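Project outcomes to date are best conveyed with an example. Our students and postdoctoral researchers have been running inverse folding experiments weekly, and each run begins with a structure described purely in tokens. The record below, which covers 361 residues, was selected by the lab manager from last quarter's runs and is presented without edits.
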């Protein structure tokens, strides 16, 4: 390798100066400053994600990101005047969004203060079998009052979720949250990043634990790419999720990027599935994101349940109104002279390089 490098440097010297071997000997390595890695933060998380959820807080202990998940009953207001018996994680439904980087070592201390046993399954994760969170199969139940520790490395990138594996009632009351592993390369580019966890259990029809009009208002500007992470947390039903205002691109399913993003305006989200969709806002206004089964999103009094509103503000800079059709371009039929396409550029002759492997012989 070193010989090949020196040979290449020598060749550059020859080409640049056209002189002889003396120049090759004179070429010396240029000192390159070695970048100093920034110190890893000791703690993080806690940010409001603007969609009714928060990032889980973590603390770095011996290179491991440690999360505390505290499960406890909570009287939860799904919308004004409607209070249900929830099972919250760290005082919220859904539980906090766990966002980690690909390759992070993660540890979870799960404290069960529910009146019944539980366990947590890490849905979509590649991990050791004994960390999979299935009581009676890969671990004992976490009894009330106990704390159980999970630890694994974040390998499976993309949008996933975690949830109780003790039945639909517990999950439907709120023992779930988003689990997002940011890939080292090739993350979905977006200006806004919203997670929508779709629930249909004992709390009723809820987006991120809330029924419209209590669902968090979402914001964007014209021209921005808005990334929605749709997660079917169930525990029972399938929901056709529709966005007003045109179409979106489905760019990933179950955390995995699609080789060919698909354009649609309604995507069917089943229990356990996740879809990453990207919408480019083009027209200002209040645009509905909702389940298209109207008994999940409307009542005789109006919108309720699985509805969020995306408020699109005008662009920061003035741009053409993209909602209006553009003027059709009429081909010219006059006898104006046709223009001659420019000639292709002439490439200079380059000296042939010897086989790059020759230096290894
Ligand atoms: Cu629905």
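After processing, the design step wrote out the following sequence:
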């Amino acid at each position: 390798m070193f010989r090949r490098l020196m040979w290449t440097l020598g060749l550059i010297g020859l080409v640049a100066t056209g002189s002889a071997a003396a120049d090759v000997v004179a070429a010396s390595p240029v000192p390159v400053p070695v970048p100093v890695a920034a110190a890893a933060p000791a703690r993080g998380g806690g940010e409001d994600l603007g969609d009714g959820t928060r990032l889980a807080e973590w603390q770095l202990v011996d290179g491991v990101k440690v999360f505390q998940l505290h499960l406890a009953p909570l009287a939860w207001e799904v919308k004004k005047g409607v209070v249900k018996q929830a099972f919250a994680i760290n005082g919220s439904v859904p539980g906090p969004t766990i966002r980690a980087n690909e390759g992070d070592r993660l540890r979870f201390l799960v404290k069960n203060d529910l009146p019944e046993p539980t366990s947590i399954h890490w849905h979509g994760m590649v991990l050791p079998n004994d960390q999979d969170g299935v009581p009676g199969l890969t671990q004992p139940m976490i009894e009330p009052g106990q704390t159980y520790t999970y630890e694994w490395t974040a390998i499976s990138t993309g949008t996933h979720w975690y949830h109780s594996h003790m039945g639909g009632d517990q999950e439907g009351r709120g023992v779930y949250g988003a689990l997002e592993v940011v890939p080292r390369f090739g993350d979905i580019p977006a200006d806004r990043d919203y997670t929508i966890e779709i629930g249909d259990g004992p709390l009723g029809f809820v987006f991120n634990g809330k029924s419209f009009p209590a669902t968090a208002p979402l914001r964007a500007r014209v021209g921005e790419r808005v990334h929605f992470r749709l997660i079917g947390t169930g525990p029972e039903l399938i929901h056709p999720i529709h966005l007003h205002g045109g179409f979106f691109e489905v760019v990933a399913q179950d955390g995995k990027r699609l080789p060919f993003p698909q354009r649609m305006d309604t995507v069917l989200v089943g229990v356990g599935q996740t879809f990453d969709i990207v919408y480019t806002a083009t027209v200002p206004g209040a645009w509905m994101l909702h389940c298209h089964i109207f008994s999940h999103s409307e009542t005789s009094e109006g919108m309720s349940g699985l509805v969020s509103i995306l408020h699109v503000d005008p662009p920061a800079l003035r741009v053409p109104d993209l909602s209006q059709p553009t003027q059709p371009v009429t081909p010219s039929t006059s006898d104006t002279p046709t223009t001659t396409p420019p000639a292709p550029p002439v490439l200079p002759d380059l000296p042939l390089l010897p086989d790059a492997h020759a230096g290894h012989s």
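The helical segments are 2-17, 21-26, 168-172. The longest strand covers residues 64-79. The training component of this project remains on track.
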